[in-house]
Every structure is written in structure tokens, then in C-alpha cells.
């Protein structure tokens, strides 16, 4: 589906069907080509993999458990449910997989300054963490609305030595933070690596970020075969930009009997601006370097979005998901804010696990479909992160509802 | 109609269409042409102008908020063409509004409106096969950006794909005013000359007569964007055309006299 370095002139690498590609200001092209080459070299270098594997194991805490959620299974009374515990990773979410990979790559390229965008703050925290570990300068762009609702992560980033720059344009959320990070990159491209946090942006990012998260489904597959002697019937993951979902889906793409279910943010309604369900209200377009589904109006202006979870509150989606959607290989549904909050309570109460609001979207879909499935069916939910960062929102939202 | 620079250095003026409103943009464009602008770039306002600095971001935001659409900008181009036959007219846009409108439909209507060229900020030569075909079929000049970071192989492809002129970016960065021109621009123009006989316009940060004079030593034209948009922002609506005309005449005093 995607090819690396030696693509013939005139053919753009990094296409997923019609989607993906490179739609960026010319100033960034040299940096994208440099990154593409550095990544291809690293991929072929056993030392790089050894370094990354060691960090993933001893620093981040891989492999993460595949946990049989017995009480949740009983409560829902249908399919047997396993949880992939990415929430147990260092920094509290899957984002660290990609940050360690790109951090090592930046070091190989001799770049000492790292910039990143963040929505929920988890990618910002993981970036700040890796920069502290490698002794690199770190600047994180974050929408002011997200700084407000994910305040704890702002403090974490600062404590880790990162500079957090608030972004006040647009809806003051993830999309605006990416715009600002790209402006910084265009300006400082000679010294700076842009540590993009999802399977978004121009080639090679969607491929590279997916590859750094493939370890999720690689482990899931092995663990599932060990525990059940067979593959699951479905894998469920939330989809913001789509990195945890691509990581959880990738190694199962050829296994046609495994349903791949991506869960987008249904927000508070179906009108444009009230949700972030790109496959329900969006259409193909170009945003921030890549061709994919975009929530937009008739004039091609990108719409505002809403979700209770900052990490899913984004108007576009990774191009590989667009291809999986069009081919029908993966299914995409949405969970709204209320179902998501209920799912947080459900998992907390039955399993003693507090998922991130992003991950709770996947739990909500699991809660919706598990009861009508057979006890012989196996579902795996990717719990992409933990919910500590969301306590402020949960306290407010759940108290309001009298929980 | 071919894009021509009547004097050296030529002058390309960028305007965010629809800021403060479409009629004002028309009046400002006409005033700019009469003050000596060779080419007008009509910027299509976009919700996510990631290559632009604060001045053009604000202008885009205002124009988007007023509901300015690509179809409006094409209408504006047609009106300007009706009253000023000689000036070059270029549509300057991010790709998404054009994609949404339909590339074929956009090119057909742009051509009918009397537009000469198209510059898409986030279109690179590798992605441009289809784009180039459709533009060519409608007699529109594709104008590509060349950056100080572009290696020679890329400059060769950019030069080969461009018509009308090549737009050399003066420095690594987003649009916006700066105090002095860096050495990047001259280097880049020199490298580009190896690959093309087309005129080379230098833009990003050009805001003063000294910049234009300095560029005149090695480039064929200067592009003035944020400085113009900032004057439009700061002026009362009815004063904007005369303020812009005065500013443009001041940029190239010698040329203005020669006319
Ligand atoms: C815990 C968690 N899950 C999921 C996401 C969404 O990103 P992606 O779709 O790239 O996995 C985020 C983003 O902030 C997150 O923090």
C-alpha cells in the first residue's frame, strides 16, 4: 500500500488507495524527504530496532497485558471481552510508542529541537517525556480550549521541561494546534523535528506513526493465540487521528474474519459542528498535508467539531482509515458524549479501570454490541489510555447527571 | 493572456479576497493596478491557512466569516478583468476549496473570468499531474513556489512545471513582514536561474522600498502580501484603495516616475 524511499519521480509515495499523499508548502518538502529517508534507513537497521525495543520494554512497559474482563463480560451478558491495556504504559497512553520511535529518529537525524501538537495532552506529555529522556528541547502547541479542559496534562508537560504554547485561533483545539505546529516547522525546519502525534499529515507520517504502533496488534495477536488459541472476532478502537486504531488493526487486516471497528466521536448531535464523526458527516478533502475525509462545508471550509474528549475532537482522520473505510475492510461507528460517559462509569464499576474519555468511546461501542453477541464470540477493546487526566471533566459531567 | 512584468522589478500584489468585502477588494485591486502592480494575486480565504502569518490569518478569518467563497473570488476576478485588461490575474488558494469546487469546473470558470494563472500553496510538483493537465487544457498558468530548502532537483522540476513566473520564497517561514531580506533569496534565485528563463518573483516579507530595491538587483519581480493586507486592515474601508495606491507608488519611486 505504501512505498518507501525509492519511488519513481512523478509518483507520490504514501498513498492508501486514493488517500494520503503530500499537500504541504514547498518549504517542508526537503524535511519530509529527509525524514522519509532517515526512516527507511532506520527501518533497515537492526540497531534501531534493538534500541526501540529496549526502550519500549524497560522504559515504557511493553508488552501491555491483554486482560480478560470477566465482570464486564458478565455484566454485558454476551461476547467474551478482552481489554488491551495501553493505559498501563508509561505516561498513560499508547502515544509513547510513537514518541519513542520518532525521538530516536530525530536523534539519528541530529535534530535537537522537537515540536509537537496535542489535543488531550497525552501526546504532548509523551513528547515532553521523550525529550526529557533524550535531552532535547520541546515545544508543544495546544489549543487554549484543550489547555483548559486538560489542565493537568499542561502541568505535567511543564514539569517535564516542555514549553506549552497556547493556540487561540479557530476552535482552539487540536486542528488549530496542528496549524500552529506546522507554521513553527516551516520557520525552523532546518533545526527542528515535528513529532506529529497521529497517523495524519503528509507522507511519511501516516505510515511511520502506524508502524510505531503496530506493536499493539502484534502483541494482541500473540496474546490472543496464547489465551484462546484463535483470533478475536472483532477489535474495537476509538479513532481521533487514528493512531491507536491503526496500531490495533494493522496486523489483522489480512485476517478477514476479524472485524475491525473504529469508533468516532458522536459528540452531542448530528449537525455539522456538533461531533467529529468524519465518516458520517465528512467528505474527501485536503487538510494539513493529507487527502482524507474532512468535515467541511460546501465551500470547502473546514468545520468546527465537538467532543467531550479532546483527543477525538478533530475534523479529519488518518488517510489509511479512509481507505479501510471505502474498501469496507473496517467499519466505523460513533459513540456520543453521553454513551461515552456511561462507558467510563461502566468500566470503572465493573473492572476498577478508569479509561480515558477517548478510549471510553471504544468501550461504549463494546457495551452496545456485546450483549447481542454469543458467549463464544471474542471482542478486544483497545484501552488506549487512562482517565486520570479527565477527572475534572468527569467530576463536572457526572455530578451534573447525579451519579 | 500572458503574465508580463512591464518594468524591473515587476510588482505582484496579494490581496485576501473579501476582506473587508468583495467590492472593496475590487476597488483596491484596480487602484493597485493603476499604481503600477503588474500582477494581482487574489487570495481565496481558507479556514486553515497554515502557511500564513497572523496578518493574513486574520484577513482570511474575516473573509471566511463574511461567507466569501471561491465562486465569489472568480466573480471578482471577472469584474477586475472587465475594467483592467492588461494586468496579470492569479488565483491564490489552498487546495481544499478548489478540490471541493471541482478542479475542472474551477479551471473552466477561472479561464472564462479572464484569470491568467493559479497558485496553490499546498500543491507540490509530485502531486500535480492531474492538476497540470486540467490547467493546461484551460490555458491557465500553473505557478509553483520554490523554497530556500528545495534542493536543485526539486527546483528543476518546479521550474519545468511553472508557467508565467516562478515564485521564490525569500526565507524559510510563513507569510509576514520582516525587517531585512536574508541572503536566502538571492541564493535561491541564482539556483533557479539555472533551470528556467521564466521571470522569478520573490515574496514573503517584502514590505519596504529597500526590500524592493534590493530584490531588483537579482530578481524580476517582488511579491507584496502581508504589508498590503495590513494596510487594508488598518484603513477605513473608503480610504483603503488610495492608501494602497500610495504605498505601492512608494515601493518603487523610480518606476512610478518612469510611467
Ligand atoms: C488516550 C487517547 N486515546 C486516543 C487518542 C486519539 O488519538 P488516535 O486516534 O491517534 O489514537 C488520544 C489523543 O489524544 C488519546 O490521548
UniProtKB/TrEMBL annotation, chain A:
Catalytic activity annotation: (1S,2R)-1-C-(indol-3-yl)glycerol 3-phosphate + L-serine = D-glyceraldehyde 3-phosphate + L-tryptophan + H2O
Protein name: Tryptophan synthase beta chain
Subunit structure: Tetramer of two alpha and two beta chains.
Family: Belongs to the TrpB family.
Keyword entries, A-Z: Amino-acid biosynthesis, Aromatic amino acid biosynthesis, Lyase, Pyridoxal phosphate, Tryptophan biosynthesis
Modified residues (N6-(pyridoxal phosphate)lysine): 95
Signal peptide: none
Annotated metabolic or biological route of this protein: Amino-acid biosynthesis; L-tryptophan biosynthesis; L-tryptophan from chorismate: step 5/5
Cofactor: pyridoxal 5'-phosphate
Species of origin: Acidipila rosea
Organism superkingdom: Bacteria
Its EC number(s): 4.2.1.20
GO MF term (any one): tryptophan synthase activity
Domain Tryptophan synthase beta chain-like PALP: 60-385
GO cellular component terms, semicolon-separated: cytoplasm
Function, as annotated: The beta subunit is responsible for the synthesis of L-tryptophan from indole and L-serine.
EC supergroup of this enzyme: lyase
TrEMBL record, chain B:
Pfam families for the chain: Trp_syntA
EC primary class: lyase
The reaction(s) this protein catalyses: (1S,2R)-1-C-(indol-3-yl)glycerol 3-phosphate + L-serine = D-glyceraldehyde 3-phosphate + L-tryptophan + H2O
Record keywords: Amino-acid biosynthesis, Aromatic amino acid biosynthesis, Lyase, Tryptophan biosynthesis
Active site per database record: 41, 52
Example of a GO MF term: tryptophan synthase activity
EC number annotated for this UniProt entry: 4.2.1.20
Listed SUPFAM superfamilies: Ribulose-phoshate binding barrel
Domain of life per record: Bacteria
One cellular component (GO) term of this entry: cytosol
Pathway where it operates: Amino-acid biosynthesis; L-tryptophan biosynthesis; L-tryptophan from chorismate: step 5/5
PANTHER family: TRYPTOPHAN SYNTHASE ALPHA CHAIN, CHLOROPLASTIC (PTHR43406:SF1), TRYPTOPHAN SYNTHASE, ALPHA CHAIN (PTHR43406)
Family: Belongs to the TrpA family.
Function: The alpha subunit is responsible for the aldol cleavage of indoleglycerol phosphate to indole and glyceraldehyde 3-phosphate.
Quaternary structure (record): Tetramer of two alpha and two beta chains.
Entry-linked HAMAP family: Trp_synth_alpha
Name of the featured protein: Tryptophan synthase alpha chain
Native species: Acidipila rosea
Amino acid at each position: 500500500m505504501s512505498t518507501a524511499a525509492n519511488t519513481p519521480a512523478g509518483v507520490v509515495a504514501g498513498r492508501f488507495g486514493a488517500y494520503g499523499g503530500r499537500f504541504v508548502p514547498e518549504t517542508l518538502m526537503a524535511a519530509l524527504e529527509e525524514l522519509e529517508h532517515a526512516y527507511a534507513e532506520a527501518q533497515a537497521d537492526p540497531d534501531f530496532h534493538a534500541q526501540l525495543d529496549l526502550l519500549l520494554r524497560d522504559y515504557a512497559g511493553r508488552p501491555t497485558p491483554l486482560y480478560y474482563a470477566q465482570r464486564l463480560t458478565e455484566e454485558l451478558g454476551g461476547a467474551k471481552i478482552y481489554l488491551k491495556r495501553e493505559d498501563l504504559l508509561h505516561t498513560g497512553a499508547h502515544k509513547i510508542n510513537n514518541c519513542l520511535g520518532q525521538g530516536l529518529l530525530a536523534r539519528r537525524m541530529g535534530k535537537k529541537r522537537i515540536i509537537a501538537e496535542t489535543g488531550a495532552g497525552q501526546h504532548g506529555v509523551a513528547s515532553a517525556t521523550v525529550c526529557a529522556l533524550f535531552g532535547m528541547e520541546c515545544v508543544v502547541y495546544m489549543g487554549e480550549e484543550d489547555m483548559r479542559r486538560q489542565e493537568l496534562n499542561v502541568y505535567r508537560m511543564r514539569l517535564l521541561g516542555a514549553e506549552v504554547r497556547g493556540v487561540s485561533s479557530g476552535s482552539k483545539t487540536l486542528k488549530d494546534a496542528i496549524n500552529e505546529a506546522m507554521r513553527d516547522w516551516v520557520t525552523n525546519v532546518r533545526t527542528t523535528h515535528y513529532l506529529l502525534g497521529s497517523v495524519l499529515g503528509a507522507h511519511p507520517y501516516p505510515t511511520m506513526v502506524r508502524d510505531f504502533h503496530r506493536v499493539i496488534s502484534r502483541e494482541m495477536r500473540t496474546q490472543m493465540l496464547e489465551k484462546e488459541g484463535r483470533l478475536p472476532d472483532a477489535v474495537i478502537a476509538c479513532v481521533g487521528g487514528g493512531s491507536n486504531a491503526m496500531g490495533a488493526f494493522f496486523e489483522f487486516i489480512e485476517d478477514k474474519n476479524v472485524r475491525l471497528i473504529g469508533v468516532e466521536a458522536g459528540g452531542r448531535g448530528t449537525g455539522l459542528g456538533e461531533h467529529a464523526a468524519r465518516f458520517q458527516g465528512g467528505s474527501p478533502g485536503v487538510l494539513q498535508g493529507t487527502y482524507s475525509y474532512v468535515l467541511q462545508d460546501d465551500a470547502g471550509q473546514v468545520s468546527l467539531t465537538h467532543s467531550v474528549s479532546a483527543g477525538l475532537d478533530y475534523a479529519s482522520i488518518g488517510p489509511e482509515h479512509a481507505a479501510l473505510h471505502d474498501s469496507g475492510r473496517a467499519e466505523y461507528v460513533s459513540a456520543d458524549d453521553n454513551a461515552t460517559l456511561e462507558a467510563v462509569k461502566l468500566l470503572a464499576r465493573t473492572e476498577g479501570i478508569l479509561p480515558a474519555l477517548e478510549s471510553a468511546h471504544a468501550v461504549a461501542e463494546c457495551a452496545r454490541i456485546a450483549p447481542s453477541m454469543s458467549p463464544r464470540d471474542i471482542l478486544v477493546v483497545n484501552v488506549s489510555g487512562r482517565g486520570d487526566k479527565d477527572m475534572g471533566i468527569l467530576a463536572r459531567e457526572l455530578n451534573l447527571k447525579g451519579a | 493572456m500572458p503574465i508580463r512584468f512591464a518594468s524591473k522589478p515587476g510588482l505582484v500584489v496579494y490581496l485576501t479576497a473579501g476582506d473587508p468585502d468583495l467590492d472593496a477588494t475590487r476597488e483596491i485591486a484596480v487602484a493597485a493596478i493603476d499604481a503600477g502592480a503588474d500582477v494581482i494575486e487574489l487570495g481565496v480565504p481558507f479556514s486553515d491557512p497554515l502557511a500564513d502569518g497572523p496578518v493574513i490569518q486574520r484577513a482570511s478569518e474575516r473573509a471566511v466569516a463574511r461567507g466569501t467563497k471561491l465562486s465569489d473570488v472568480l466573480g471578482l476576478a471577472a469584474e477586475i478583468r472587465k475594467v483592467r485588461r492588461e494586468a496579470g490575474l492569479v488565483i491564490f488558494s489552498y487546495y481544499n476549496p478548489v478540490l471541493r469546487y471541482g478542479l475542472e469546473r474551477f479551471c473552466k470558470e477561472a479561464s472564462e473570468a479572464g484569470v491568467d494563472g493559479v497558485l496553490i500553496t499546498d500543491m507540490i510538483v509530485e502531486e500535480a499531474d492531474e492538476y497540470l493537465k486540467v490547467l493546461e487544457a484551460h490555458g491557465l498558468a500553473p505557478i509553483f513556489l520554490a523554497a530556500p530548502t528545495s534542493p536543485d532537483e526539486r527546483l528543476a522540476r518546479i521550474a519545468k512545471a511553472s508557467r508565467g513566473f516562478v515564485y521564490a520564497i525569500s526565507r524559510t517561514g510563513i507569510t509576514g513582514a520582516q525587517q531585512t531580506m536574508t541572503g536566502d533569496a538571492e541564493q535561491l534565485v541564482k539556483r533557479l536561474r539555472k533551470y528556467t528563463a521564466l521571470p522569478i518573483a520573490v515574496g514573503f516579507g517584502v514590505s519596504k522600498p529597500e526590500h524592493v530595491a534590493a530584490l531588483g538587483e537579482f530578481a524580476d519581480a517582488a511579491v507584496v502580501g502581508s504589508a498590503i493586507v495590513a494596510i487594508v486592515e488598518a484603513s477605513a474601508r473608503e480610504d483603503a484603495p488610495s492608501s494602497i495606491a500610495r504605498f505601492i507608488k512608494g515601493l518603487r519611486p523610480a518606476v512610478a516616475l518612469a510611467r
